[in-house]
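User: tokens in, sequence out, please.
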């Protein structure tokens, strides 16, 4: 949709007196003045509320401290979505990372145990495979040759079983011919999704739907402007590929508005846009209860969502974009098209010791 040169990872470390560190972060377009609004909110609003707090071994400590920063009236009045939520999400994820490290477990195990204890009918013991779909093959500025080469390499050499490409060219016919070229390159057995990033109007989306269905497209992501519940509902009623959205929804109520209106099929919560792991779980619980599919949007590039997704046996897909994996001690990894099960204690957010030295920027 536009060009970016870097992916921004503004975030926070929460450090206990005993030296245990929890890390959480957001995902941004690396625009430093904007990123500094996020780190400024963490530094000046969340920091004073958390410094000096205790943090016991119970998971309820995550809720207690999240509640303290989440319900701080001055920040609530500033906004219950957007910038404040992005900052709070980093803090909440850091608290979950801390809790999982204190328990000596990867976060996904904690979430499964927590769910087994709180939901009637324990989730199955067996871990179902989490299929990675590759988004990095299909940016909008790629030529058709680049698209088809990337898609073939991902599927035939790297083992991906699913890929996603962008749509939203000035003319719909061009989008359709690009999708057709990729479909022909990868064959019918590979799952293919498209993502319009909110660029279409309803008339274009309605015209595109049957043509994309003919090409075996699994879902159309963000076909319309992010907030337009009624138009998405109309598109769902018209039929065609499944409608996926959620990466630009910033709290659980925004998701429930879409679900209650039957304006979505595939719900895509993101810990870096919502209030972290906690609200991701709130959205996912509600979506599963309502019979919707859940596939995380990877604003974290999958580091945390590998955990939250394995925490729910109903979640079977995860987006893969390998832009920041080299910054982490246990980078999200895909083998034979499946997301490797994280093993390290924590939420997958521990930075390599050289990451800040190599990539860090002054944060205020
Ligand atoms: Mg998207």
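Assistant: Sequence out:
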């Amino acid at each position: 949709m536009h060009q970016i040169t870097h992916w921004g990872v503004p975030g926070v470390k929460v450090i206990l007196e005993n030296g245990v560190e929890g890390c959480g972060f957001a995902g941004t377009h690396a625009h430093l003045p904007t990123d500094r609004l996020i780190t400024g909110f963490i530094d000046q609003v969340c920091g004073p509320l958390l410094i000096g707090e205790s943090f016991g071994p119970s998971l309820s400590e995550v809720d207690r401290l999240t509640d303290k920063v989440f319900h701080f009236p001055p920040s609530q009045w500033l906004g219950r979505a957007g910038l404040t939520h992005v900052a709070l999400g980093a803090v909440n994820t850091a608290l979950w990372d801390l809790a999982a490290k204190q328990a000596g477990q990867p976060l996904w195990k904690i979430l499964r145990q927590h769910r087994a204890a709180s939901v009637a009918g324990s989730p199955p013991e067996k871990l179902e495979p989490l299929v990675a779909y590759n988004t990095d093959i299909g940016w909008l500025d790629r030529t058709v040759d680049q698209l088809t080469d990337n898609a073939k390499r991902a599927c035939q050499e790297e083992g991906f079983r699913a890929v996603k490409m962008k749509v939203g060219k000035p003319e719909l016919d061009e989008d359709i011919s690009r999708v057709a070229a990729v479909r022909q390159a990868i064959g019918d057995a590979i799952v293919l999704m498209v993502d319009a990033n909110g660029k279409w109007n309803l008339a274009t989306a309605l015209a595109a739907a049957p043509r994309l269905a003919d090409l075996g497209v699994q879902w159309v992501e963000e076909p319309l402007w992010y907030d337009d519940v009624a138009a998405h509902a109309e598109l769902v009623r018209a039929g065609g590929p499944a409608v996926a959205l959620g990466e630009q929804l910033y709290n659980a109520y925004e998701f429930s508005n879409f679900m209650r209106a039957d304006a979505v099929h595939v719900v895509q919560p993101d810990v870096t846009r919502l209030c972290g792991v906690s609200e991701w779980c709130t959205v996912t619980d509600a979506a599963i209860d309502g019979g919707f599919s859940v596939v995380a949007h990877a604003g974290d590039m999958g580091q945390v969502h590998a955990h939250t997704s394995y925490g729910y046996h109903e979640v079977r897909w995860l987006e893969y974009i390998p832009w920041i994996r080299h910054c982490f001690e246990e980078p999200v990894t895909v083998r034979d098209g499946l997301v490797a099960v994280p093993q390290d204690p924590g939420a997958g957010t521990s930075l390599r010791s050289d990451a800040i030295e190599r990539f860090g920027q002054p944060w205020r």
